[in-house]
Amino acid sequence: MEPESQEPRTETHSRNLTSSDARLRRVASWTAIMGTWVLAAYFFGFLIFHSCTRTTSEGSWFIRILENHFAATLGVPLSAVASVCIVLLLKATTGPIEYEGMGFKFRGASGPIILWILCFSAMIGGVALLWNK
Questions:
Q1: CB neighbour class for 50 (10 Å; exposed up to 12, middle 13-18, buried from 19)
Q2: 100: which strand partners?
Q3: Residue 104's beta-bridge partner residues?
Q4: Where are the beta strands (DSSP E) in 1-133?
């Protein structure tokens, strides 16, 4: 009998790992997208419930915070959620996000992180510009 060789695994095995890995990434991405939608729905439900409850601003801590810090209370969290949705949707529909420019190359995990930072910064900048201070 010949001893078992230490050769790399066969092509079919590596192909199964690759398709399994792609399937896992696709499921994880869509799970993250759906989880983000659930969190956003909960946030809006919480907001609607506390906004529609007939109380004065003195009687409701939530309305008092909304009146004093509306952009910070809603703008920042929803900008973060919207940025995550944009990045995950682009990654799920077009594949890995890679960015090259100005002497930098972002690949792997850094591509989505940089895209999220750019989206979030643009949204926060828009809120800051449009907000009446």
A1: middle
A2: 105
A3: 101
A4: 99-101, 104-106
At residue 109, φ and ψ (nearest 5 deg) are -75, -20
pLDDT along the chain (133 residues), means of 10: 52 58 83 86 82 70 78 84 86 79 82 89 89 70
Q: Which amino acid is at 68?
A: N
Q: How far apart are CA 34 and CA 53, in angstroms?
A: 28
What are the residue ranges spanned by the domains of the chain? 32-130
Q: Indicate whether this model's pTM tops 0.70.
A: no
Dihedral, 46, 82, 116, 85 alpha carbons, nearest 10: 100
pLDDT of residue 64: 78
